[in-house]
Amino acid sequence: MSRIAEIRQNVLKKNDLLAAELRMRFTAAGVTVVNLVSSPGAGKTALLETTLRQLQPRYRVAALVGDLATDRDAQRLKRAASQVEQITTGTVCHLDAAMIAAAIHAWPLETIDFLFVENVGNLVCPASYDVGETMRAVLLSVTEGEDKPLKYPTIFNSADLAVLTKIDLADVVDFDRTAAHRNIHEVAPSLPICEVSTKSGVGMDAWRRRLEALRGAPSVESTGASA
Amino acid sequence: MSRIAEIRQNVLKKNDLLAAELRMRFTAAGVTVVNLVSSPGAGKTALLETTLRQLQPRYRVAALVGDLATDRDAQRLKRAASQVEQITTGTVCHLDAAMIAAAIHAWPLETIDFLFVENVGNLVCPASYDVGETMRAVLLSVTEGEDKPLKYPTIFNSADLAVLTKIDLADVVDFDRTAAHRNIHEVAPSLPICEVSTKSGVGMDAWRRRLEALRGAPSVESTGASA
Description:
The structure is a homodimer. Chain A is of the alpha/beta class. Helix content of chain A is 40%, strand content 17%.
């Protein structure tokens, strides 16, 4: 093994240990953690903004937002939730467990139901870094092209859910839905897929129900049906 | 300095040396090298495909295409140019000078006028790796949002040109052109910007003229005027 590969492996091993520790703390405190990964501009912040509003006041929500520079996303999300913190990574291409641990250091975890981690926009590096999440969701916007899962397989096959975003633009950009699903399943055979548009609202209820299911909560629909 | 930071700096130093060597070889052989960097799905391959067709047969063109997996882009580009090679990087998030050197090892450089390097889709890592290029062009598609230059400053302030792509979709996605230009110039004050759409053809002539100017060639327009 090359020197670089060896060091990289040690870094990843250390991260895995710290992430496992974090996961135990989150579980013990009853926090459901969702790690959102995608290319820059796939719509992580827009999805998160709508999701935070949808989940409140039923759930207590918080968010950590990663970017190389600026706190724009945190400022934007603060309009939707009070507990939001920006992590600026400088030139680092991903969030890791140590950054998450440092950011939540002073937070009373037992007051949080959902913690969303908006990762640095990058289809490569965040795939390798566990941050102690309950679910990793990879977003793919219809404007990026159906071939992306084949070209960036690791981030898809390490995810628990694929979310096709900006689905309202599908026709305008000639998005081939069948090809996208086929390509996702070629690299991640059993990965569930949902399709959303924060603009039109399509798919947002199904997305929310998936999140609630992570907490074992009954969905609003089934509650309605039994009422 | 931390151990990791130290090693990373050594890697970058080695890459810079190799890139300088490559640049000398390219210059001596008369090859103009254009390094295309962007997010996944910003339209690098589409721009490259159209560009290769536009430049031929006036110029002898070649391309190197980086992806983590698959040779789809190379296959696609081979329809537009004969000398195309795919570099698959596995889990590596960028192309570096050593990969370029290995890929062109057997190529007779003096038979090439333009060599295009399509980097791995990533707005972070490729910024740090010189590949011996004459010009680095960073693409930003209108669907990604105007804030990206502020969030990923390094890739913009290390580029020689910004190309706003998919400009035909600007209205559909409420793209704020003024804000995009302002944000680019906030992180890279004198960076020239061009706007293109491979779909409608808008801006493609101006882009081609910029490429030709790198070789000191008169543009088709000025040739036409003096004829």
